[in-house]
Amino acid sequence: MQKHHRLQNYITRGTVITGGMVDPEKKYVAFTILDDISENDPLMQEEIFGPVLPVLTYKNLDDALRIISARPRPLSLYVFSNDKTFCREVLLRTSSGNCCINETVVQFINPYLPFGGLGSSGMGRYHGRFTFETFSYRRSVMKTTNLIDIPVRYPPYKNKAKLVSFLMR
Question: What pTM did the predictor assign?
């Protein structure tokens, strides 16, 4: 199924608040906000990757966090609130690739912030040095001399514990 057909099927699921126009010939789908979407709607079962925004309502923070936590970790989590306690609770009680508070998409274009997902939303962090680090492997290497080999390093440790403790201080 072509992407615009999939998105068009999503649009038929709820009440269109704005948008909803689809031109299959041009493979065009207008930015669409949908209301009256249920948590179990097919639209809520996968990442949309298109200009369709479902709106779910909740009665309290616990209800919202339950909805978020019931799904795989999102690539991005957007929080809109001036309530610092609310924002802090959302950050502490959720997991996502990245999070924006009172902002959208800008974190993606900022080269100083890593961007990437978790689990099914992707792996790694990208942008600038974060991309380099994602595709690099840091290996620990410890090198010591073999000129002197202290027997206290090897088991049995029965009578050596106090000496090792003293040496590690």
Answer: 0.64
